[in-house]
Amino acid sequence: xxxxxxxxxxxxxxxxxxxxxxxxxxxxxxxxxxxxxxxxxxxxxxxxxxxxxxxxxxxxxxxxxxxxxxxxxxxx
Length: 76
What we know:
By secondary structure, the chain is α+β, with helices and mostly antiparallel strands. Helix content is 37%, strand content 11%.
C-alpha cells in the first residue's frame, strides 16, 4: 500500500520548490548532484616516490550538504 502525500508535499511538487526556495529534486537528480563531489588523491610536486599521497575532498554545496546530512540520519 502506498502512503498518501501530505498537502505540504503536494504543494512543493506543484511549485517545484522547497519552502526555502531551493529546487525540488527527484532521486535521480539528487544523485546527479551528489556525483559532482570529488575526492582527489594528490602527491606534492617534486616529492619522492616513497612519499605518501594525501586526499583532498571537495567542499559540498548547500544542496549536497543537506542531502549528506539526511543520509547520515538513516539508521539500518
